[in-house]
Design goal:
alpha/beta, Glutaredoxin, six-stranded mixed β-sheet, 16 strands, binds 2-acetamido-2-deoxy-beta-D-glucopyranose, transmembrane helix, Protein disulfide-isomerase TMX3, disulfide bond
């Protein structure tokens, strides 16, 4: 019943949507097609002379469809801005051999292909972010800053940037190597000492420095480990707004993520205080916590709730360990800087109780939780599809149940009739028979046949 209701109620809307989509495609396609090339088998031979930004998609994937209009805009803007990057898309299901050669595992996969190198894009799928990525990765891994003006210009432009200062050295070679790999994440520059402003005083050259948080910090080979692990840890501002994507990216630094969950639209006094405190810890207690913590705030608790599968209050404070999916919450509300410092210290020394995790129980819970939210989201976005996916099997199952139930009640009435014809003695006999059968649990059909002996007696 429900199934048919959904089917018919959403049918006209779906048809309308389809028609609109078809018409708008027909109207717009001549305007758009020029900027994004449909790639096929020939791509592998023809691509080497250019830098390519490619969307590997599957025709059935929802996220790919969502990316499609963004991708057209990316293509248009890169063409208009005179970028050397060419934009294409490839149906990875039609050219699966080539897609797997490029290391495509999910859809959509965005890659920048530059000669022998392939760079994965993992950030938010918005036009500006993708274009920024393309321009950054397509250019040289290390950009040199010839003048003080250029240095001041890039400082203003980028919230985080790495800079090599000095002449030729083994450190510079290492720096270029690290930059070629990590250019997907951030910017790498090099400069001579006279391009720096007076505010930057480096005691020793050559040096690798990160500029962020309105400050700069120097790489120390002995304390900070390998240059690439240091860059990986330092590539984010110490405090930043966090959403699902940033949380995923932050996780790759291997640090704990301390989050103030707040309501940004309608902030309460408590929520402003909590944010203020966590910002102070990030800025003033860098020496103590920077190595292990990334700090930030998240607007609303929706994302966190689904992540940890339980409800956190707004505002509240929590620490996530993204490597093992554990989380920590303070046992008492945090109202002062001391309380917050104590909480973070207790997480580090292991005295704070950990919740969640990636144990077997949590995994089962996750599967159930994800299944529920998938079903909900399918129904929300497309009731028609939801009905086909879940309504059809449900309908079949309920029909089967109905069939079985009615069949059983038929058996029952026959039994009753038979019983009437039986004497007390015979009834006892049949009860014995039934008990014996219960152990063997044959299906209803067999049961009917085996009952036949008692019928014979009646005859
Ligand atoms: C976070 O998880 C990793 C991996 O399981 C573990 O080694 C580390 O000790 C955890 N950190 C804390 C503070 O629990």
């Amino acid at each position: 019943m429900l199934f048919f209701f959904f089917f018919f109620s959403s049918f006209p809307r779906a048809v309308m949507a389809l028609l609109t989509a078809v018409f708008s495609c027909l109207l717009l396609s001549p305007l758009l097609v020029a900027h994004v090339q449909d790639l096929d088998d020939m791509f592998k031979e023809n691509r080497m002379d250019d830098v390519w930004l490619v969307d590997f998609y599957a025709p059935w994937c929802g996220y790919c469809k969502k990316l499609e209009p963004v991708w057209q805009e990316v293509g248009a803007e890169l063409t208009h801005s005179g970028s050397p990057v060419r934009v294409g898309k490839m149906d990875a299901t039609a050219y699966s051999g080539m897609a797997s050669e490029f290391g495509v595992r999910g859809y959509p996969t965005i890659k920048l292909l530059k000669g022998e190198l392939a760079y994965n894009y993992k950030g938010p799928r918005t036009k500006d972010d993708i274009i920024e990525f393309a321009n950054r990765v397509a250019g040289p891994a290390v950009r040199s800053l010839p003048s003080r003006q250029m240095f001041e210009h890039v400082l203003k432009r980028h919230s985080v940037l790495f800079l090599y200062v000095g002449g030729e050295s083994p450190l510079k070679e290492k720096y270029i190597e690290v930059a070629a790999e990590l250019i997907v994440y951030t910017y790498f520059f090099s400069a001579s000492e006279d391009a720096l402003t007076e505010s930057v005083a480096l005691p020793e050259l050559p040096a690798v420095v990160v500029f962020k948080d309105g400050n700069y910090f120097t790489y120390d080979e002995y304390e900070d480990g390998s240059l690439s692990s240091w860059v990986n840890r330092e590539r984010f501002q110490s405090y930043l707004p966090i959403d699902g994507f940033t949380l995923y990216e932050l996780g790759e630094t291997g640090k704990l993520v301390a989050i103030a969950v707040t309501a940004e639209k309608d902030p309460t006094e408590k929520s402003i205080r909590l944010k203020g405190l966590i910002q102070r810890v990030a800025a003033e207690h860098r020496d103590q916590f920077n190595r292990d913590f990334q700090f930030g705030h998240m607007d609303g608790n929706d994302y966190i709730n689904s992540l940890i599968m339980s409800e956190v209050p707004v505002p509240s404070l929590l620490v996530l360990n993204t490597s093992n999916e554990q989380y920590f919450v303070p046992e008492e509300p945090v109202e002062s800087l001391e309380q917050m410092l104590m909480f973070f210290t207790s997480v580090l020394d292991g005295s704070a109780p950990a919740y969640g995790g990636d144990g077997i129980f949590q995994r089962i819970k996750r599967v159930a939780f994800d299944a529920r939210s998938t079903i909900m989201s399918v129904f929300r976005s497309s009731p028609l599809l939801g009905c086909f996916l879940f309504g059809l099997p449900l309908g079949v199952i309920s029909l089967m149940c109905y069939g079985i139930c009615t069949a059983e009640s038929d058996d029952g009435s026959e039994d009753a009739l038979k019983r009437e014809a039986l004497t007390d003695e015979e009834e006892e006999e049949e009860e014995e028979e039934e008990q014996r059968l219960a152990g063997g649990a044959p299906d209803t059909q067999d049961l009917g046949e085996l009952k036949n002996p008692s019928e014979k007696k009646v005859d």
